[in-house]
Model the fold of this input.
Amino acid sequence: MTASFDIAIVGGGLAGCAAALHARRMGASVILLERGRCGAQASGVNYGGVRQQGRHPAELPLARRSRAIWSNLQSLVGSDCEFRATGHLKLARNDADMHDLAAHRELLGCHEIHSEILEPAELRLRFPYVAPIYAGGSFCAEDGQANPRLVAPAFARAARALGADIRECCPVEEIRVSERGFLLWLPGDLSPVSAQRLINTAGAWGAAIAASLGDQVEEAVMAPNMCVTEPIAPLIGPNLGICGGGIYIRQTGQGSVVFGSGLGTADRHQLKARPLAEVTCEAARLAIAMVPALANVLLVRTWTGIEGRMPDGLPVVGPSPRLDGLFHAFGFSGHGFQLGPAVGAVLAELCLEGHSPTEIDGLSMSRFEKWPAASDAAGLHSA
Done:
């Protein structure tokens, strides 16, 4: 007998698990299918920054909505997932960067996000551990950090507690369009799972799922190179980033310093990724250049994961431009962690109500039909 659901979700990262929870809270029957463990790929191995500052304008409505959800994690999923509003400090290398930060501050203000522009003297006064080489910075006090290993599993547990069918270690072998929606074949099952609507949150494999259903889009793969040190005494308050990218640093509540820069290697077909020693060495050099007191701190672990990257550095979020009942959210390009809780809410709303109050038009898959070439959204919109 075919099991039937209102919504089937392929991919158990943060966006998928959040969609499952929000859809169950709205009364829908939900099945989530994850090839491995929930949160085991990009959602669980990223830097853990929860920032609104530095985002592309198309992401800011989602970022703003998500920030409110982050504050409510304890009541929503039963854990705060170590979320702390430590702030986010983006440093300027020169006067041109300061001009960009000032312009971005105005953009943030349009979304009711407050940031402060800091001149060099104030920067050194408030954050004396930062090397005195910067032209200033921008501080957003609302931003913060969380433990990425905890968040997607917490959403999955909360969704399961509300009755969602969460299946881990359960790859989808085939998806077909049916008269009533979608049919999904799973290993060992004689009959497919049936769903009226399908959410594709398959991460670096999202474009392949989309292509199997007629939505063609390019998605590359990336592997952010991450590092963590031994615990040290409290030193760094906010997340630290820099205009133009290059290095990002935070200190956890347990004292360890997490930082990242550059890319490791990833093979999405083999489900393998690894950091690179030379990239790690350069990341350590950049970290010390930003925070000199890290010079004698021991590095204890490096890692990476498999993340999807879109040609313009922005995710695909929203309905399929060609197939009713199909919704996508993938290709977060290394900065989807903060967005995940709101992405899940928006997907649930689109599936069940046909619309969402959160603006996502700039993230539609259809935008790629207009662009002849890929571009790289780096610079200000980096960690």
Remarks:
- Residues 307 and 334 are 7 Å apart (CA to CA).
